[in-house]
TrEMBL record:
<keyword id="KW-0697">Rotamase</keyword>
<keyword id="KW-0413">Isomerase</keyword>
<dbReference type="GO" id="GO:0003755">
    <property type="term" value="F:peptidyl-prolyl cis-trans isomerase activity"/>
</dbReference>
<dbReference type="InterPro" id="IPR019734">
    <property type="entry name" value="TPR_rpt"/>
</dbReference>
<dbReference type="InterPro" id="IPR050754">
    <property type="entry name" value="FKBP4/5/8-like"/>
</dbReference>
<dbReference type="InterPro" id="IPR011990">
    <property type="entry name" value="TPR-like_helical_dom_sf"/>
</dbReference>
<feature type="region of interest" description="Disordered">
    <location>
        <begin position="1"/>
        <end position="32"/>
    </location>
</feature>
<feature type="compositionally biased region" description="Gly residues">
    <location>
        <begin position="11"/>
        <end position="25"/>
    </location>
</feature>
<protein>
    <recommendedName>
        <fullName>peptidylprolyl isomerase</fullName>
        <ecNumber>5.2.1.8</ecNumber>
    </recommendedName>
</protein>
Length: 344
């Protein structure tokens, strides 16, 4: 009986060469001849020879090594392609989106989570990069990992679950694990709120002196207190929320003063989440929207103020400024496009 492992060609380990298949003819073939060659006798012989070559025991390790190499090569190419797409998304996102995600890009886990923003069905990367809840989630995850209270694997798993299904139990579990809070009786709560008010007063002094960096630090300390404590009665919690809203508005004012408009809008949004009819938050946010040329959003906030307080003079003044800004924008656009058409 024939030995199944007898070499069928003169190449390495029994592989065939062009000489085995009538070398000169093949060596003179052109690229256009390849389909006909592979579909003919040579193709069949080559396929049979390769099967025999692959079945030989001494070639198994060689083939597996080659396959692993090809898989790694394909994986590297896929990563490079994905990285290039991700880089393009980041660089073409709006300024606020780039600024928001910058602190997280050095963290391997958070970078992968941010990469999922590219999967938005409407191709809107900035929507996620400017989403206040998503940014809060990233901040808390980074803090937990930096402090060693959560492993990278735990953070990644929970974040993916929350981003994909925020209404499920994962969301509650994340809040419990990342948000530390202390329930205080009324007597102790009063002491905490007095400390909070002292920090805010210091912040107000710095704000009046236009020392906005120092003011922000004091306001953040004040916020840390009211976000830590929880009241044991509805009345106590209402008092805590009232001070949280005031601190959100203080932080929004500082950010508005230094033209950090995205943060101003975000903290006004936090205040509005707790009190949907907060006049100061709506007015402050409308100013930030106007400065960002988001005129429709600014108008919406101002109209909400007018619905709540028809007599509000500040809202009337901001509406006047808004109309003026819109007109100015139209004139500038007309001038810009007119110049382009004249050049053409």
């Amino acid at each position: 009986m024939d030995d199944p492992w007898t070499p069928s060609g003169s190449g390495v380990n029994g592989g065939i060469t062009s000489g085995d298949m009538g070398g000169p003819g093949l060596q003179n073939a052109t690229r256009g001849d390849l389909p006909a060659i592979m579909n003919g006798q040579f193709g069949k012989a080559f396929e049979q020879s390769f099967k025999e070559f692959a079945q030989r025991p001494e070639n198994k390790v060689l083939l597996e090594k080659h396959q692993r190499k090809e898989v790694k090569k394909a994986a590297r190419l896929a990563r490079k392609t994905k990285y290039a797409e991700f880089q393009d998304k980041v660089l073409t996102a709006d300024y606020d989106a780039q600024k928001n995600i910058a602190p997280f890009l050095e963290n391997r886990v958070l970078r992968r989570v941010i990469h999922t923003f590219c999967n938005d069905p409407h191709n809107d990367f900035s929507k996620w990069a400017n989403n206040r809840q998503v940014l809060d989630l990233l901040h808390s995850a980074k803090k937990m990992m930096d402090e060693g209270r959560m492993t990278e694997d735990e953070a990644e798993e929970m974040m993916y679950q929350i981003v994909s299904s925020p209404d499920r139990e994962w969301h509650h579990e994340w809040k419990l694990k990342t948000k530390q809070s202390v329930r205080l009786p009324t007597e102790q709560l009063l002491g905490a709120l007095n400390e909070h008010l002292e920090e805010r007063r210091k912040g107000n002094d710095f704000y009046r002196q236009k020392k906005f960096g120092e003011a922000l630090k004091q306001y953040e300390r004040a916020l840390g207190i009211v976000e830590l404590v929880v009241g044991m009665s509805g009345y106590d919690q209402k008092e805590i929320d009232k001070n949280r809203i005031a601190t959100y508005l203080n932080i929004a004012a500082v950010n508005l003063a230094v033209k950090n408009l995205g943060q101003c809008i975000a903290f006004c949004g936090k205040a509005i989440d707790l009190d949907g009819g907060n006049i100061k938050a709506l007015l402050r946010r409308s100013k930030a929207y106007t400065m960002r040329h988001e005129y429709a959003s600014a108008k919406e906030d101002l109209e909400r103020v007018k619905d709540l307080e028809p007599w509000n003079a500040e809202a009337e003044e901001e509406l006047r400024k808004l109309r003026k800004a819109v007109e100015k924008s139209k004139v500038e656009q007309k001038k810009f496009y007119g110049g382009i058409f004249q050049q053409a």
